[in-house]
What we know:
Elements: E1 3-8, H1 18-30, E2 35-40, H2 41-44, H3 61-72, E3 75-81, H4 89-97, E4 106-112, H5 123-132, E5 136-144, H6 147-150, H7 160-184
Domain NADPH-dependent FMN reductase-like: 3-146
Organism: Pedobacter cryophilus
GO molecular function: FMN binding; oxidoreductase activity
Amino acid sequence: MPHIAIISSSVRIERNSSRVALYFKNYLESNQLATAEILDLAEYNFPIFDERLRLQKNPTPATIEFAEKIKSADGVLIVTPEYNGGYPASLKNVVDLLYDEWHRKPVAISTASDGVFGGSQVITSLQFSLWKIKAWTVSAMFPVPKVQDAFDKKGNPTDKAATDKRAANFIKELLWCIEAKSKMTP
């Protein structure tokens, strides 16, 4: 069974995108599609990195742990809010921290906002950053408009049937990429 690291990228107080991360962890595990763990950037509370991990002289244990979790995951699911048309600095910070760990890593993107567009403006800028470091971004997306109404604080969707249907297609693409990569890697 594949293992998926879910990055919950918002570090704001009263954040809502973390609800989506909780939903995906539960969805993957309850449907026995993959094991999953949430890498909550609010809990890591990383400083602004001044250098990539491979060039740091004394990386913190948390930094090394995070890098290892990304490296060892079969795929990564990033859940990010949209802040003024972009993604949060906390996410950019950890994307740029790593390099080899992202190489050909299947990465799915779920965006969230409190508005009607569901964070769709952030997708291209995040995809571009991931492409530049050679991550394999999955073509399927999972935007969540009005995230505060779509999920409760525990990650339960208000319309479970419709959300699960959308999630099935989204996760199917991530799992396909994970499987394809496993067949290509010697």
